[in-house]
Amino acid sequence: MSFAPKPTDPGRRKLLKAGLVGTAVLATAGIAVSVTSFNRASQQPATEGFGFLRPDDIILLSALIPAALGSTLSADLATRTPILDTMLQRIDGMILRLGAPNQKQLLQLFDLLSFAPSRYLTAGLTSTWDKATPAEVGAFLQRWRDSRVGLFNAAYRMLCKVATVTYFALPASFKESGYPGPWAPMYNAVNS
Asked: Which of 112, 114, 119 is nearest to 34 (CA)?
């Protein structure tokens, strides 16, 4: 019987390296955001109609929503702009109804993606979100979707779900999705 050590599986070694790199990137980004003293309580909401989202959050979501929805969202700016505005209002209202732990996680994600060094380290974007091209935003979402880092996968799913659920809850999207709308007698009975 030989008790010689077996060679390490190269697949496991690559997985460990990827995990260490991901952990280092997230730790660096987290420290950078903490050191810069992002103080959400001292910041005012973006505009009169928002209770939670800051200007940077609105810019971020305005870039991410079209990339997450793809061709589902109209390319015509006259049609797209009011839909985006309505979606941002609804996202703001949804976040206000979340519990404090979920709000805190969303704040951390928005701060991570808004702060330039952490945005570069985690999303690969050197430009701000309002200057990022749709192709760059789409590539960022695809990287997070396909990442070996579980936190990136979870953040990708959260960002895309917020966009898609909000969009498909709008009456303007019912026709596109083939949904005829709620049955009028039931809707009136429940909402009277």
From this structure: 112
Task: Give start and end residues of each alpha helix (H) in 50-149.
Answer: 55-69, 77-97, 100-114, 116-123, 134-146
For residues 35 and 184, give the distance between their C-alpha atoms in angstroms, rounded to a whole number.
54
What's the pLDDT score for residue 8? 55
Instruction: Yes or no: say if 58 and 86 are a contact pair by the CB < 8 Å rule.
Output: no
Nearest-5° Cα angle at 164, 175 to 185:
45
Q: What pLDDT was estimated at residue 19?
A: 73
Q: Using an 8 Å Cβ cutoff, are 112 and 184 in contact?
A: no
SS3 41: helix
Is residue 77 within 8 A of residue 131, CB to CB? The reply is no
Return d(Cα 86, Cα 143) in angstroms, integer: 28
Report residue 107 as tokens: 């704040």
CA pair distance 55, 186, nearest whole angstrom: 39
**pLDDT, tens digit, 9 for 90 and up, residues 73-102:** 888 888 889 999 999 999 999 998 988 898
The angle, 0 to 180 degrees and rounded to 10, between the axes of the packed helices 150-168 and 10-35 is: 70
Other CB atoms within 10 Å distance of the CB of residue 14: 11
Segment among 24-33, 54-63, 167-176 with least mean pLDDT: 24-33
